[in-house]
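Ligand: 4-O-methyl-alpha-D-glucopyranuronic acid. Inputs:
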Amino acid sequence: MKKVLQFSLLFIAFFCHLSLKAEDGYRLWQRYDQLQNKDLLKQYRQSLNGVVVQGSSPTLTVVKEELEMGMEGLLGSSITIANQLPKKASLVVGTPASSPIIKELGLEQKLKEVGQEGYLLLSQKHKGKNHTVIAANSDKGVLYGTFHFLRLLQTQQNIQALNISSSPKTKLRILNHWDNLDRTVERGYAGFSIWDWHKLPDYIDQRYIDYARANASIGINGTVLTNVNANSLVLTPEYLQKVKALADVFRPYGIKVYLTARFSSPIELGKLKTADPLDPAVKAWWKNKVNEIYTYIPDFGGFTVKANSEGQPGPQNYNRSHADGANMLAEVLAPKGGIVMWRAFVYDNNVPDDRHKQAYTEFKPLDGTFQGNVMVQVKNGAIDFQPREPFHPLFGAMPKTPLMMEFQITQEYLGQGTHLAYLAPMFKETLTADTYAKGKGSTVAKVVDGSLDNHAISGMAGVANIGNDINWTSHPFGQANWYAFGRLAWDHELTSEGIADEWIKMTFSSAPSSQAAIRTMMMGSREAVVNYMTPMGLHHLMGWSHHYGPGPWIKDKPRADWTSVYYHRADEKGLGFDRTKTGSNALSQYAPEVQAQWGNPTTCPEEVLLWFHHVAWDAKTKSGRTLWDELCYRYSGGVDSVRAMQKTWNSLEGQIDKERHQQVKQYLAIQEKDARWWRDACLLYFQTFSKRPIPQELEKPQGTLEQFMKIEPKFAPGI
Ligand code: GCV
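Predicted complex:
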């Protein structure tokens, strides 16, 4: 009997062990597996043989927990976190306020320079002994420093002579969840919403805590829980209790909660006859509502608002401006310290103008009329998160208004949950673009971080790609985009390669050869997507509604600017949207220096050529080929790049755990199939205008245009 029991216990232990080791991607970049480099382990163990965290706030408690979990995992030995300085060399963590030891170190000047959220990581002598120090002015800064320190261990850096100081360039670093209260996620491709509204506030899913840990580790300090296509129900007491439960979980991690405000809420919830922002009853309703919210969540961040856009209600329903709407909300939030993030993603069916121009036309005249706690949130480009867009002309055009960047992390137009597209190069492309607003060097990044125009508030929002899939993001490489967004929101000067390296080491492998191979895959992946979907400045060619596959033939829809033909303008002469003076003149919304470069087809970068110009099929491109041939080459090149990624990934078999290797391998096979679908469908369609053959040496389309036009994915996610 005893033997049977022993055997059963062994059996259970074995399977528990196996399940603990499941490589399902849940742990994101916070895996904390024991390091394999013996020399480094020895060094770490020697210099980190005692940890002192003085202070007991909720955030410092989280710091202790994370240090314990991280260091025990990485070093493979248990650690004790003390309140007092141990005799030997040690890690000292805290603020001058929480820790007498940190106070004694005399870091005042250095700490002054890192501000409220920044931190120092130092190797410092104290009373003749060597210490590693994580110091900050606030507990939140300590938390960020702790995650940086753990990252150093995870990525196997030398920690003998640390002299790091870091502080965020952008003040508000925020995720936007387009999550509905029924748990569907608009443009979400990783399952249902992680917010389990039905079970809240009583059931706190471990995921909420792990979500907060992951976000804090990359410096995210805010989350908008609900879809910008908003439901006013979230503002009712029933839901506010649920929101409060989430806010309570996130608070120790330095993450504030925000909600989307449906502009017509005073009518829907308050039974008022109007939502006119200048109506005293409406103002009073919002004031009461805001006061009520703060009784639940004393540090509530504020509202994100989508108004008068794609059917959403807004101030224009009452002949009021966007500023009237934003300011009314800002006024009631201001005494509580809340802010308004008012989206500039607006376009009007009744304005028969190039959609590219509409946000600028509406918002530019409002510059200087917004209250101090309003930020206007602008998408990276003027259309809608296309695989490549030139930067939005509003950047640099509203110097008196803090403009917030809105990036889309979820890959609505870049293969959604199945394609590998590392987005850091795309984010960087926009951030480093020069607006010339105040002469050369007036980059979008400087507009967004507030430094160009000296704004007190600044922000970057990323539309989240997170869902309740076990690995959070559907594609394992989708995690890299969440990671990259946070890292760039903290410091937009980081390089895409550097961010990829960190992520790969923490997520997949630190072996130099596999790391280099994965980095190469990642760095070329977004350009591959651009090439097989929308090369040379083409845009908005996707299938109706689902936005997954190709649909360059889409026409005759309720709005012209919801069709593809509106954007590519293919005809027997050529291809592309003339946005110069002879066309829509959207170019006039940019600074003269930008106009001069992009306005001339010979100096316009080929990457955005067809965005701004209608180009003849036989026009010569930089490669010496005609436009038609170049297009064929680019589409084919996109497919080839995916095949190259497949080859690289296959070569990594055995170096990556089986589970994730197999998963990515399958996704790459889907991507290759989809890339051919895009290439073949688009080339066959454009060929009906160009009437030219696909160059002999390139692969021929597999199927007919009619066949491609009939493909209609059923129940595609995210709609
Ligand atoms: C949340 C695009 C998307 C919509 C999204 C909208 C927006 O149109 O397809 O799903 O709505 O952008 O950003 O408001």
